[in-house]
Fold each of these.
Amino acid sequence: MKKLLIIVVFLLASVSLFAVQYELPMLDMTVPSGLTANQMYVNFGHKMLQPLNKYPTDNFFAVVKNGASFNLNLRYMIWNGFEIKTGYNTIADEKNIGLSLVAKAPSQGLSVQADVLYYNYDDRLIRNQMASNFLYLLSAQSVPLIWDRFSVAVNAGYDGYFSEFVMGLGVSAMVVDNVTLVGEYYPLANDIMEKGKIACYDFGIRYSTYGHQFMLKFGNSTQMEPRELMLGTTTNDMYVGISMMRFVDFNSGE
């Protein structure tokens, strides 16, 4: 785990700033922003709380009846390379705000981003207190590879509240124009697994238009935020979720 983090940090440190717009959204992972100045993304999602592998045979609408988690995130590029963001997640009544520094290195086949995020949430189930936390996150994503259809992504960071190094790995493959298969895996450090946690994963499909990204996803956690997914889950149940990203360009009035 630590060797992987060292490799990622070295890779991110080796690129130079370069202004190019391109973004390939993953399901839940953070990817380097493709926005330019005065552009914004609004992202919201639902994750159903009814496990699909424990679906009651006598209640067809259980997936709706048993509720869902909800998150809402906004990202705005102040000027090229500097992005502000904020979000809300109904699980643990979590609020966050952060700042991103984006670097593009297309000649090296890579885009990177450094995030500092502040979280406030209810941690009464674990430490019986309201918690405040900083997450320091580095993300990297390749330009489209192999006929411009495949891309890989990496998240590596440090959770200040739990004092843990965290990571996420992802891959996407465009099967036909505008339709992409996506998979994510969040490996855990040994000390997190010793607390009874297991690694989270997501897989699903993304449909893209100029102004929207629609996603259908499946995974073993009800969470949709990278920080929580990188800290693992306690069950291997299967959940389904949906999310949508809306692109807003204030330069053109869209």
Amino acid sequence: MGYALTQMVTPPVPAELDPPLWISTPPYAAVEPVLGVPPLGSIFILDVDLGTGAIRGVSSTVRRAPWAPLLVVTRACPADPEVLRELEGVPGSPAFLVRRPDEGIPLGSLARQAVCSRRPIDPEQLATYIASRLRRPSIAMPMTIAMSAPTRGLARVAFGVRWLAGRLNSLGDLDASEWRDVFHLAAGAGNLRLSSAQAAERMGLDLWTLRRRLERLAGATLDQYREYAGWEWFVESVLRVHCGVLPREGESQAPLPGRQGHLKSGD
């Protein structure tokens, strides 16, 4: 995983977090200690200024919930290389936040902003993430091909190359064009700067089609798609609906945004 410090943002946050690892869940109104397995849409918040001794072992906790992106909070820029080495193996792509004196902005809101300000995900990164989550490293290359293929070339890629179709079929019931849809939907997840209609238009869809596609691929509502931070929760939802991935034992549930339905979670 790459800890690109160019992704840092610098809004104010409170002083030290003790213990160093916290969690913020939708609607990101507060931060709480990590108790059990956090729900889809959560953000891990790690204060690395306490040193490698304080955060040792944190990565194993984060790996228990790969659908929750990690926010690294620090005063120093760049962050201590020893601290970053301690976090090697954490899934996904972290966000970074440089601390300043508290100006009254809730840390949960800042965490959401930082996560959504990460560099956009690309097909290879998402394919590698899925391969790791499914423990199928050999699927990374065909998944990358499916997600990055142009619209006109998808039929030829999916049905003309038997090995690609076979590899994708071994994962579940999604074909190459649907995995391409997963990539584009994941890339746009959590964008509150766009209205629902604007989000649909950016993907070349009408609002009704976007709603149907979210429900079919991830069991998600449009409210969840816009309000839950990051792309990891969306991909996890797809893997649970279509690839047989089950929720972790003891996993909690996030409050539902709006008045719509809920995420399918393998029950």
Amino acid sequence: MLWWSVPALFAIGLLTTGAKADWGVALLSSTGLLLTAWALARSGNAPVGVSPEIAGWAYFSLILIALIPMEVALILGRLPGNYADGLHLQSYIYTTYGVAATGFVLLAIAIQQRSLLVGRYLPLGLAIGQVGASFLIFDAYPARLLSPDGVISEYRVSAALPIILAAIALWAVFDVLMRFRRFRRTDTPKLSMLLSPTALFFLVAFAKAGYTVPPHISPDDYHLGEHLVGWWSYLKGMVPMWTSYRRTA
């Protein structure tokens, strides 16, 4: 229960700094706390049932699985050709909400009934969710941008970029599958053995980045200078913002 309280406390703590709190994170955290508390109340001293630990892991796997429709939309939106022309993002968002809400209700019912199915299928759910999260690396590939006048534009990228991203995604999928296989063959497995740092890193990066930022020019001289100095240092073969600069004539 302590781990599920951290996101909510962090979101609320942002209010003390004057920043805008992310209430979506607080909602995920509070529902996780609700499920683990419900599991604690239902399990008690019963020999069978869903423990708070299993309930927390199950809710985490539910979040990962609910993101799969968004991951499908992410990949379709970056495929070449006209694959993204009929892409309705709202339908994928609603599907994600529907999967999350349905899974939450079913998980609460399973906790109520002390069902053993939760623990039995939990490892598979974690593996499936992490396989989907492995493809979040494609968020690093710029999406096409639709301007208000209906014109679609896109960033020019190297042909090697999608190949590299696909290789990294497949590597992450391989890591998830190997961990699942090792889990199945271990006599005393722990659920933490299933966690792939690579796939979960993509999840954190996606939560931070989220979408392709359209090109823009900062209206103030300070931030415009930051961009120009970074670009100038890159052209001179230096790492922007990490190398001391020399005044140029």
